[in-house]
Write a structure and sequence with these properties.
Elements: E1 2-5, H1 8-15, E2 20-25, E3 30-35, E4 39-44, H2 48-57, E5 62-66, H3 69-79, H4 89-93, H5 101-109, E6 117-124, E7 128-129, E8 132-141, H6 143-158, E9 163-170, E10 173-175, E11 180-188, H7 191-208, E12 211-217, E13 220-223
Parallel strand pairs: 1-5, 2-5
Antiparallel strand pairs: 2-3, 3-4, 6-11, 7-8, 8-10, 8-12, 9-11, 12-13
Helix pairs in contact: 6-7
Length: about 220
């Protein structure tokens, strides 16, 4: 799900090309996402990222944020990306994405109607690394190249016999111990088809993506 700052006008435009939601900060310092006529999500504005992950779970393509000046700054730091202000459709089409395991799986199942298997890999942040207690991880990327390399990796996986679709998502910014870092999903016609390309995708992710990890410990840090 792509995220941008905007207003009702860009929201209306986005609804014409995909499933869009407008998330507004109200006078009670809450974020409110109205879904249809009778269902809405309301939460403390400090939980903006959790709200966005819920919306990604629900299958939204775009989320427009309105009124979250301070929260957006924190969201950008946590996600390691810049969230643009959208006044035209082309602005949000280049906006960063937030994904969940469910949203990745649903996307990989799309246009894979003859598939009976989906293979999943989840990368998780360790709490202990080489005997040291990890406080957090920080991921940085060469973002001008990242989307291209992710698409290249996904296309390599799709070339395997019996594979119909593949999707990879790697978080950037701050990741806490126990949190998910990576989702890879591969859709194949049969279960025997998915294992080799899924393993390849995991290995290529480690060697081909322009992403760097910083482990922060209680008594120091290192880049890996």
């Amino acid at each position: 799900m792509k995220i941008a700052v905007g207003d009702e006008e860009i929201f209306k435009d986005l609804k014409k090309i995909g499933k869009a939601v407008l998330v507004v900060k109200n006078g009670k310092n809450e974020c409110c996402a109205k879904l249809g006529e009778s269902l809405q999500i309301t939460a403390d504005a400090r939980n903006l990222r959790e709200v966005l992950e819920c919306l990604a779970d629900l299958g939204f393509d775009f989320a427009i944020l309105k009124g979250f000046d301070l929260e957006v700054e924190g969201l950008e730091k946590g996600m390691g990306v810049k969230i643009p202000k959208a006044t035209k459709l082309e602005h949000i089409l280049k906006a960063p994405e937030i994904e969940t395991l469910k949203s990745v799986v649903e996307k990989v199942k799309k246009d894979a109607l003859d598939c009976g298997a989906v293979g999943i890999f989840i990368g998780v942040a360790r709490a202990i690394s080489e005997g040291k207690k990890v406080k957090m991880l920080e991921y940085e990327a060469y973002q001008e190249l990242l989307a291209e390399k992710v698409a290249e990796l996904e296309n390599n996986v799709k070339r395997f016999p019996g594979i119909r679709n593949a999707k990879l998502f790697h978080k950037l910014g701050v990741v806490m111990p126990g949190e998910d870092i990576v989702y890879i999903a591969v859709a194949g016609q049969h279960r025997k088809d998915i294992w080799a390309p899924l393993i390849l995708a995991v290995e290529l992710m480690k060697t081909e993506l322009p992403i760097w990890k910083k482990e922060i410990f209680e008594n120091g840090a290192r880049w890996v």
